[in-house]
Design goal:
By secondary structure, the chain is of the alpha/beta class. The chain is about 40% helix and about 20% strand. The chain has eleven helices and eight strands. It has an eight-stranded mixed sheet, sandwiched between helices. The radius of gyration is 17 Å and the shape is globular. The mean pLDDT is about 90.
Length: about 240
């Protein structure tokens, strides 16, 4: 049975979906079969990042309506074998309920080593659906006050959903900007503000961000890719030191 992890954030714009695509590809490089479920109804984007948007016919709402079987709505990433996506509905009104999500993920996790659920930002109804089937959670945040403000609220909601293993990823980290802005004295203060244990730090990497916009999960010798690989190793249970 696969490990099911919801990837969430306190606000939009943290790079959560880019992180999901990047760490999904990193998990595949470790020999895993990985499914990303996009739960951001009306605002889906992971299909673009994995280069499958031009092939989409069905999405998760079509499975619920009985228009197709689950395998018809799951698309392989053409550039990363063993990385798959189940797209979100195009319309917010087609958002899947928490109960249906639990049933669907229970079936799908038999066929994947990891399921990553890309959650809408914030703690609305989409959050409840995305987190309903997860046993683990990753909160993606930037090292700035607005991003961290909602982290503790997200963590509290995850705890209420009985998700006990909650980790923090500091994304798009630029040490020079961090010190220049002076919002926090150090990274320990950022972690304390978020209220979750650190899983990893992903440095700001414009080349990696550009790759995802072109429909290609970042690979090769990039700073972000190195971070994704280390985080993927930790998700797999490996003892990898923290750090950038």
């Amino acid at each position: 049975m696969g490990r099911v992890t919801v990837i969430t954030s306190g606000k939009g714009g943290t790079g959560k979906s880019t992180f999901a695509a990047g760490v999904g590809a990193a998990l595949v490089r470790r020999g895993n079969r990985v499914l990303i479920i996009d739960c951001d109804a009306g605002m889906r984007g992971v299909d673009l990042m994995l280069g499958v948007s031009g092939r989409l016919v069905f999405d998760i709402a079509d499975i619920v309506r009985g228009n197709c079987t689950p395998e018809n709505a799951i698309y392989p990433c053409s550039t990363v074998p063993e990385l798959y996506i189940l797209p979100a509905p195009q319309n917010i009104r087609d958002e899947v309920s928490p109960n249906i999500m639990r049933q669907l993920v229970h079936i799908l996790k038999k066929y994947y080593d990891h399921i990553l659920i890309d959650c809408p930002a914030g703690i609305g109804t989409g959050f409840e659906s995305a987190a309903a089937a997860a046993g683990y959670a990753v909160i993606v945040a930037n090292a700035e006050p607005l991003s961290l403000r909602g982290c503790d609220k997200v963590r509290q909601r995850l705890v209420r959903l009985k998700i006990s293993e909650i980790r923090l990823v500091i994304n798009r980290f630029n040490e020079r900007k961090f010190r220049k802005c002076g919002f926090f004295p150090d990274l320990d203060s950022v972690i304390d503000k978020a209220g979750a244990r650190l899983l990893g730090i992903v440095p700001e990497d414009n080349a990696a961000a550009a790759e995802t916009q072109r429909g290609q999960p970042p690979e090769g010798k990039m700073k972000a890719v190195y971070a994704f690989d280390r985080i993927a190793a930790r998700l797999d249970g490996a003892d990898v030191p923290l750090g950038i």
